[in-house]
Amino acid sequence: MPARLNTRERIIHASLELFNAQGERSVTTNHIAAHLGISPGNLYYHFRNKQVIVAELFSAYETWVDGFLRLPADRALRLEDKAPYLESLLQAVWRYRFLHRDLEHLLEADPELAARYRRFAARCLARAKHIYQGFVDAGILRMTPPQVEALALNAWIITTSWVRFLCSTGESTVTIDETLLRRGIYQLLTLEDGYVVEDARPALMMLYERLYVPLNIPSDE
């Protein structure tokens, strides 16, 4: 844990660590307080319940995603912009992976958070469409507007469901390895494969190699 954090910041930092490691549903405010060596009353002084902690962590995640999921302000997109988008997304999902693992439960437990998440999702989908269209305008992808819309939606579905997919297939239960999340980003990239212009394909192949991680999904055969 970073040094010189005040108590409120320590609670947020510890909560994120515990939620990611054990799953949000398995962690109570008493667990968080015990982990920090503070009294439950001290924790409640800063946060009246666990939902408030979750909401603050979601705000941090939302701010992070809003920060990178946008078009450059002063130029057109270039092929070399693709890797930073993917790496930034990987870092955000990795740092706040509990949100993706426990999403339905979190939204059912907090109607206000659910409303915020719907606005966030709509904003992300709109921005993803703008980014994919930016690559079309730059001559890197060849797509129609309906295809751009479908690609943005499919990318969102993979991004928000990948952690739960790993848990449900036996790749992981609670602890998610960062390399397995990287495979999820690889899956996003493969969605574009049929739309990439020939000149951009060599760079795409390099990204494929960087992001590919084998999966060991159990089989009954």
Automatic annotation (TrEMBL):
Residue ranges occupied by any HTH tetR-type domain in the UniProt entry: 5-65
One Pfam entry name: TetR_N
Keyword tags: DNA-binding
Domain of life: Bacteria
DNA-binding region: 28-47
Protein name: TetR/AcrR family transcriptional regulator
